[in-house]
Amino acid sequence: MTNDTQSGPTGSPDRIDVQNESSLKEWSGKFGVTKEQLKEAVAAVGDLASDVELHLKGSRSTTNTERVDDADT
């Protein structure tokens, strides 16, 4: 049996506590973003680290549709 819950930098299972300075520092380092970017991501999608990671990756990359649209112009 596998455990799908990730253990975060502070030991909490996959949750980001934006009220905790240590948690902010560790998660922002893990994701390669500023503390402010991390807070904005948590405000947008909640404190689940996997959701925040997907949100941050999505905000820093383009989709295939965007690339196709750019190629058409």
How does this model look, in words?
- The protein is mostly helical and 73 residues long.
- Helices cover 59% and strands 0% of the residues.
- Helix 2 packs across helix 3.
- It is elongated, with a radius of gyration of 15 Å.
Short description:
The chain has four helices and no strands. By secondary structure, the protein is mostly helical.
Which features does this protein show?
73 residues; mainly alpha; 4 helices; disordered N terminus
User: Average pLDDT across residues?
Assistant: 78
Q: What is the N-to-C order of secondary-structure elements (H for helix, E for strand)?
A: HHHH
* Contiguous uncertain segments of 5+ residues: 1-8
Care to count the β-strands? Answer: 0
Overall shape: it is elongated
| Rg over alpha carbons | 15 Å
Proportion in β-strands: under 5%
Largest sheet: none
Q: In terms of structural class, how would the helical and strand content be classed?
A: mainly alpha
Bin the helical content.
55-70%
Tell me the number of helical segments per DSSP (H or I, 4 or more residues long): 4
Terminal residue distance: 50 Å
What is the fold's blueprint, element by element?
Blueprint: H1 21-31, H2 35-45, H3 49-60, H4 64-72
Helix pairs in contact: 1-2, 2-3
